[in-house]
Specification:
The chain is α+β, with helices and mostly antiparallel strands and 98 residues long. The chain has five helices and three strands; from the N terminus they run ααβααββα.
Length: 98
């Protein structure tokens, strides 16, 4: 098994930190179904748009989501094809994580 070097471990920790908030984790889960704008996410999560925007900004800065501006709205998508695999891994960890 290949082990993490310090730099790689720091990068992975930053990714996990970005996912380490319940709202951000729920946003990523919803984005697996396709692109969404802030209003859609806020409504689905029953939160204010400002909160959704703050969380999306952190996810964007971490490289987990991409944004495309169209017709005066920002549409967010998952930025990397391996992110759904990471989320699935978290789902299967439910038996281990209590």
């Amino acid at each position: 098994m290949k082990h993490f070097d310090r730099e790689t471990a720091e990068k992975r920790a930053e990714t996990l930190k970005a996912l380490g908030h319940p709202i951000r984790l729920c946003i990523m889960d919803l984005l697996q179904d396709g692109e969404r704008n802030v209003g859609d996410l806020a409504e689905l999560l029953d939160i204010k748009s400002a909160i959704a925007s703050q969380q999306l900004k952190l996810l964007r800065l971490s490289g987990l989501v991409a944004v495309e501006k169209r017709d005066g709205h920002s549409y967010y998508t998952i930025a990397h094809p391996n992110v759904p695999r990471l989320l699935e891994c978290l789902r299967t960890c439910d038996e281990v994580i209590k």
